[in-house]
């Protein structure tokens, strides 16, 4: 039996002959590939073989979700960030990012964030998923900036289900989480970082405490409710789901307080944009499309440093010489009115939805008429000097009284003297004693009346 086995083993010369033949064939095949088959075709064939064998032996598939997508924030990245921050306390990870930005309460409950380079395990309908957040320097940007992205890894067989079901699940979950969020944020644009910096928004003004004409307040609340429930309506009529408000009136009449009340009522964060800090129209589009839905875009004091309207003056002869042309170019603001209007109601307005845009100004008459056209600022709200009804609301809030002997006298004085709600509030905060405070308010109004006369 052993002898028959050894007789079947090929001789050394046979093995060497086979090896020589295979080597010659390999060299011939390599020559054919390099000299006969074009380089592009050869690379294509090799890549196909490589992909086939790598997918055959590798059972995992990885989704890459970058933070930036086109002109704005990748909403899938945002949804994952919101969703994962809620499941972190329930799972075991190697590290956990915690913190609090509540300045008024150092003992406030900690918030959780997704740590970089830590694996986070999740389960969806029995499928095990692995999340990892990466951060690295973005070398394609002329400014030093971090590029962040998620890796979501699953078994290759579940790839299609994750795409159709799991991503939909985290998107819906993030929407519910944001709708019920406890804290609102206020964002300001940083020209150095070319991005938004956030802080916790803790303004306590609500429509309950806001001193405003009751009829105007109720009208505004009804308008906000109709906007909030109007998704199907805006879609049916073919308009972007947004609403524009112009708050105008003298300084100190409560425009900022009204913005805070709207934010608290709608549970929307605020993006406070200073137009002077924006470089040009392209930058304006980029930063505005990077804002979140269900938020307020606030542009204050539009008359003091708003967009330049010179780009709209196209009636001037091209050949006509303007001796101040160079001076005008040097003084020209960075953002044009056309660039702002394109985002407010142009094609770029369709890039966002469920958005409230609020402009404030002390001098409505100084604004370019193009800004006041219907459809750009849907509702114009005059924030005027203090009236008797506004005064009574302020007294109820600050002094906790609804009637007093001096009320009638003070209300008559408001018909003759112009005083802003801010001035009245300052007088009402002098003392908790209504007699002392209201006497001081009477003296203040009388002095303003004498000054006017």
Structural commentary:
- The radius of gyration is 33 Å and the shape is elongated.
- A 7-stranded mixed beta sheet has the order 10-9-12-13-14-11-15.
- It has helices spanning 2-8, 12-35, 39-57, 75-87, 159-179, 214-228, 231-237, 255-266, 281-289, 302-305, 325-331, 337-345, 388-398, 407-414, 421-428, 434-452, and strands spanning 60-66, 68-69, 72-73, 97-99, 111-113, 119-124, 127-137, 146-155, 184-190, 195-201, 242-248, 269-272, 295-299, 355-361, 379-382.
- By secondary structure, it is α/β, with parallel strands linked by helices.
- The longest helix is centred in the first third of the chain and has 24 residues, at 12-35.
- A hairpin with a 4-residue loop joins strand 9 and strand 10 (195-201).
- The protein folds into 3 domains: 62-182, no CATH class; 197-311 and 325-382, Rossmann fold, CATH 3.40.50; 388-452.
- The relative contact order is 0.08.
- It contains 16 helices and 15 strands.
Which features does this protein show?
453 residues, alpha/beta, Rossmann fold, seven-stranded mixed β-sheet, four-stranded antiparallel β-sheet, elongated, AAA-ATPase, hydrolase, ATPase_AAA_CS
Provide the spatial order of strands within the biggest beta sheet: 10-9-12-13-14-11-15
Q: Would you count the extended β strands for me?
A: 15
The CATH topology of the largest domain is: Rossmann fold
Largest sheet: 7 strands, mixed
What portion of residues is helical? 40-55%
Distance between the termini: 132 Å
Low-confidence stretches: 310-321, 327-331
The CATH class of the largest domain: Alpha Beta
Rg over alpha carbons: 33 Å
* Strand-residue proportion: 15-25%
CATH homology-level superfamily of the largest domain: P-loop containing nucleotide triphosphate hydrolases
CATH architecture of the largest domain: 3-Layer(aba) Sandwich
How many DSSP H or I helices? 16
> Given the helix and strand composition, which structural class is it?
alpha/beta
How confident is the prediction overall: mean pLDDT?
80
| Count of separate structural domains | 3
* Morphology: elongated
Pfam families: AAA, AAA_assoc, AAA_lid_At3g28540
Family: Belongs to the AAA ATPase family. BCS1 subfamily.
Organism: Cardamine amara subsp. amara
GO molecular function, one term: hydrolase activity
